[in-house]
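Standup notes
- DV: blocked on the single-chain target, sequence here:
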Amino acid sequence: ECPEDLQPAIFDEDWPLTIWYRIEEFQLVSLKIIAEAVLLCSPNFLDKTSLPLCVSGELESESLAFSKPCTLWASPANAGALELATEIATAVAGLTISTTDDRP
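- DV (later): unblocked, structure below
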């Protein structure tokens, strides 16, 4: 039970919502959110709005790449497909984009 004098600082502030999952990989995401919130309240990080936290071995901390060159087709008939394909190709090495209707 939370003491009444502490409740406003905990429940009335605009803290980020953290959902706790049973799956271990998602628990790590929740722990990162909690750790970031605690660190951002500490004197060393008061001037920051976010921190680049990562867990060893998580995908975000590793470079993504295909083992051989791959092509991602972005249909000209699909609005937004090229924009999404470009974003993916920027994040993943070895990926090229094709917008042609002809497949090899």
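- Follow-up: The longest strand covers residues 64-73.
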